């Protein structure tokens, strides 16, 4: 059973990926400093899988502490790197914090990958690297455009660093560009734990529906789209998670002919903000309290994925519909409300 090191394992996509890896026969260890997550999510993983996950509470910006993990685990067969700051708005206010955290942690990790000859490295990238695309759907060959935020630049630079690293080292790398991950694991034992007021659409919808937010703002309905609101490619977090397992298997089976290969992880369906709200109202039978507000600076007008490469090369197929995304997100929000101790979502309460 090969051991995979997952950084950011207590985070939203990291925790769902650990579940999928375990269900597919992998052994997993996690590295997460819990600065923006709670180790309690590991209890949820244990409830789902029956496996206790060891988490190293380490800041990857500390090279010595990071190195010590590899020295203690000589059998790491691959790494999936999620740990990074990802709040677009915060990155605009604090660019240096984003460049320091997201880049220093990646470089420290890659130094250890080289030192310990780790054969496979999978990187959590984002459709944000495409900026405002001229043509949609976007393929992996769509040229990146200037990012819309420092966060987006950390993903673009991360991809370039890994690309160059893979040319100078035997490690084979995969870059996974997520579109908009939403929803919760079907068990409703793990899900998204936004810190503070959510910037992302689906947690904003569910927190409004549950009454945590009095009224939600739709950021603009005057865009050149079919209903005036922005279009995105929403994808269930468990579908995203499974693509990571398939990526590791693909690398381990020696099928990759490239040193660094890119895959779009999107459903391939463009959905507008108003359509997403409509779908939520349909599955939840809750009338959502929202108003139309001004456009949000930096918002991409419309983007969705051409996911042919992941489907044909990784054998990846999405299992969950938009209705499933909304219903699992809603059930998760209801659980958080019903059991306030289940997980707390503010940094002060996280530990
Ligand atoms: C989606 C749409 C908003 C909240 C995200 C992540 C980013 C990256 C890409 C991973 C936009 C609108 C939102 C609200 C709204 N993911 N909206 N009212 O902007 O596509 O970016 O995916 O790397 O990290 O932020 O997603 O969910 O923030 O917004 O109208 O209260 O919903 O304007 O059009 P986005 P989002």
TrEMBL record:
Pfam families hit by this protein: GDP_Man_Dehyd (PF16363)
GO BP terms in the entry: galactose metabolic process
GO CC field: cytosol
Alphabetized InterPro entries for the sequence: NAD(P)-bd_dom, NAD(P)-bd_dom_sf, UDP_G4E
Gene Ontology molecular-function annotations: UDP-glucose 4-epimerase activity
Pathway info: Carbohydrate metabolism; galactose metabolism
Catalytic activity, as annotated: UDP-alpha-D-glucose = UDP-alpha-D-galactose
Its EC number(s): 5.1.3.2
Annotated ranges, domain NAD(P)-binding: 5-327
Keyword Nucleus: no
CDD domains reported in the protein's UniProt record: UDP_G4E_1_SDR_e (cd05247)
Names of required cofactors: NAD(+)
Keywords, comma-separated and alphabetical: Carbohydrate metabolism, Isomerase, NAD
Family: Belongs to the NAD(P)-dependent epimerase/dehydratase family.
Database matches in PANTHER family: UDP-GLUCOSE 4-EPIMERASE
Quaternary state and interactors: Homodimer.
Protein name: UDP-glucose 4-epimerase
Protein source organism: Niastella caeni
Lineage: Bacteria, Pseudomonadati, Bacteroidota, Chitinophagia, Chitinophagales
Gene: galE
């Amino acid at each position: 059973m090969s051991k995979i090191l997952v950084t950011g394992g207590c985070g939203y996509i990291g925790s769902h990926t650990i579940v999928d890896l375990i269900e597919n026969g992998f052994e997993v260890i996690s590295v997460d400093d819990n600065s923006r997550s709670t180790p309690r999510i590991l209890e949820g993983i244990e409830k789902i899988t029956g496996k206790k996950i060891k988490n190293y509470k380490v800041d990857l910006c500390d090279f010595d502490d990071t190195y010590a993990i590899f020295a203690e685990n000589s059998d790491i067969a691959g790494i999936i790197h999620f740990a990074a700051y990802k709040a677009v708005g915060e990155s605009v206010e604090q660019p240096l914090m984003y460049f320091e955290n997201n880049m220093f942690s990646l470089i420290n990790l890659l130094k250890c990958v080289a030192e310990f000859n780790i054969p496979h490295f999978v990187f959590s990238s984002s459709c944000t690297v495409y900026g405002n695309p001229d043509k949609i759907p976007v393929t992996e060959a769509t040229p990146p455009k200037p990012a819309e935020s420092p966060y987006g630049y950390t993903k673009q630079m991360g991809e370039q660093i890994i690309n160059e690293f893979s040319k100078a080292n035997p490690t084979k790398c995969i870059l996974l560009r997520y579109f908009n991950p939403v929803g919760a694991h079907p068990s409703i034992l793990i899900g998204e734990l936004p810190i503070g007021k959510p910037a992302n659409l689906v947690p904003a919808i569910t927190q409004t529906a549950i009454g945590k937010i009095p009224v939600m703002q739709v950021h603009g309905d005057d865009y050149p789209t079919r209903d005036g609101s922005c279009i995105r490619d929403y994808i269930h977090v468990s579908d995203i998670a499974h693509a990571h397992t398939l990526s590791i298997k693909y690398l381990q089976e020696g099928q990759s002919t490239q040193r660094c290969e890119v895959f779009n992880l999107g459903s391939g369906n463009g959905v507008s903000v108003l359509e997403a709200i409509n779908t939520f109202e349909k599955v939840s039978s809750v009338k959502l309290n929202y108003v139309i507000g001004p456009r949000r600076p930096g918002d991409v007008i419309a983007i969705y994925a051409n996911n042919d490469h992941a489907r044909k090369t990784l054998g990846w197929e999405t299992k969950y519909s938009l209705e499933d995304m909304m219903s699992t997100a809603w059930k998760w929000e209801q659980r958080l409300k019903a059991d306030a101790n289940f997980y707390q979502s503010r940094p002060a309460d996280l530990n």
